[in-house]
Amino acid sequence: MSSDEEHHKLSNEEIGEKQAEEGLEISSPQSSTPAELVDAINLVFGKQTHNRAIHAKGIVLEGRFLPGPSAATLSKAPHFQKVAVPVTVRFSDFAGIPTVSDTDALANPRGLAVKFHLPDGSETDLVIHSFNGFPAATTDEFRQLLIAIGSSGPGVATPTPADTYLATHPVAKSFLESQQPPPVSYATLTYFGVNSFKFTNAQEQVSFGRYRVEPQEGNQFLAAEEIEKAAPDYLADEIRQRLARAPIRLDLRVQISEPGDKIDDPSTAWPETRRLVDIGVIEITKVVPDSEAAERALLFLPAQLPEGIEPADPMIQFRNAAYIISYGRRHQ
Ligand code: HEM
Predict the structure, then answer these.
(1) Is 79 a known active-site residue?
(2) What is the C-alpha end-to-end distance of the chain, expressed in Å?
(3) Predicted local confidence at residue 14, as pLDDT
(4) What average pLDDT does the segment 149-153 reach?
(5) Which CATH class for the 3-329 domain?
């Protein structure tokens, strides 16, 4: 059995028990199923038979990951040791709409998925987005939000279900209202893991942390007049032009929790004073020749993890199961 299948078999109750043993704060077990979450996403963006339920528009690239000297202090994971490994990267817009314009509000937050090809032939993935938070603390709450939005189309009497939901859920309201302008590039944005992982190093020392990927070029956004002129697919064109000039370098870091930080609530950012451990550099060198075929074949799984990294937030296994269901639906 692969480690992914093992994770898959853990119920939310078992994850809850594991966390309780480790003395972590946990929320109540989830009652929605992963299929119900994909249904709720489909309610917002329509049923998909070819594209991802969400983050449907993207571009696939290749490069390598170069671990830095601090990585092994955090985890014994193979890609945290000294040897560089190949990576497959997918940048994406948020919506489950493959034709969404890169300047549309529904393109935010942007997504970053990285597949690390490990020396033993296995893979591990990172699936993160360009907002330091999430509109819901739990999967149940996320489903309620999606159903409220999906039931609030044109012609629905006001206050719509979405109006009512947002009036009583300030975290979701602020997520929707505080998105950034369109970026200059997929490579000029910081991406946040938001779900927490447990890291164990070779000395069996344990830390809890959240991933963060920061562009070496810094965060850069389009000015108002540039947004007006930007083509609907400018981000894919831009990344091709950028790579023709030089590789893209993104710093992978882990933000380490302190007592009292919520491990199982991705809607709440931890204070910026938390320690950041440098893990290494994601170096992207080229766009794959047939990005559309590559993205259809690719499945990035947030709980596909090597020894030394485990999910600490139950949303991670839940997401994993939902991504597999979405993959099945887009290959009918
Ligand atoms: C309960 C919470 C969540 C659910 C149910 C969910 C569901 C999904 C689904 C169904 C897909 C499509 C997978 C596929 O067809 O391959 C997807 C993709 C994605 N999600 Fe989530 N998601 C959740 C939380 C998150 C969070 C917290 C983040 C960011 C930190 C995130 C970032 C992404 C990204 C970047 C992709 C695109 C991956 C790719 O390029 O293949 N999601 N999500």
Answers:
(1) no
(2) 25
(3) 44
(4) 93
(5) mainly beta
Instruction: For residues 44 and 150, give the distance between their C-alpha atoms in angstroms, rounded to a whole number.
Output: 4
Ligand 1 pocket test target in 51, 55, 331 with most atoms within 8 Å of CB: 55
Closest to 108 in 3D by CA, of 54, 34, 144? 54
**Ligand 1 in reach of 113 Cβ (< 6 A):** yes
Q: Which atom of ligand 1 is nearest to the CA of 110?
A: 35
Task: Name the residue with the closest Cα to ligand 1, atom 37.
Answer: 55
Domain boundaries, the chain: 3-329
Give the number of the atom of ligand 1 that is nearest the alpha carbon of residue 58: 40
331 alpha carbon, distance to own chain's centre: 22
Q: Pick the catalytic residue: 7, 8, 50, 55?
A: 55
Phi then psi for 134, rounded to 5 degrees? Answer: -150, 150
User: What is the Cα Rg of the chain in Å?
Assistant: 19
Task: Give the whole-angstrom CA distance, residue 240 versus residue 141.
Answer: 38
Mean pLDDT for 240-250 is: 98
pTM comes to 0.92
Distance 225 CA to ligand 1 centre (A): 31
Q: How far apart are CA 196 and CA 255, in angstroms?
A: 9
Burial 112-135 (b: 16+ CB within 10 A, else e): bbbbbbbeeeebbbbbbbbbbbbb
The C-alpha atoms of residue 235 and residue 244 are separated, in whole angstroms, by 14
Using the atom order of ligand 1, give the atom closest to the CA of residue 37: 5
CA distance 257 to 277: 11
Nearest CA, atom 28, ligand 1: 128
The reply to whether ligand 1 has any atom less than 6 angstroms from the CB of 304 is no
Question: What is the maximal distance between C-alpha atoms in the chain?
Answer: 60
pLDDT greater than 50 at residue 303: yes
Pair type for strands 197-200 and 309-311:
antiparallel
Q: Is 171 in the pocket of ligand 1 (CB under 6 A)?
A: no
- Among protein residues, the one whose CA lies closest to atom 38 of ligand 1: 113
Crossing angle between the packed helical segments 34-45 and 315-329, to the nearest 10 degrees: 60
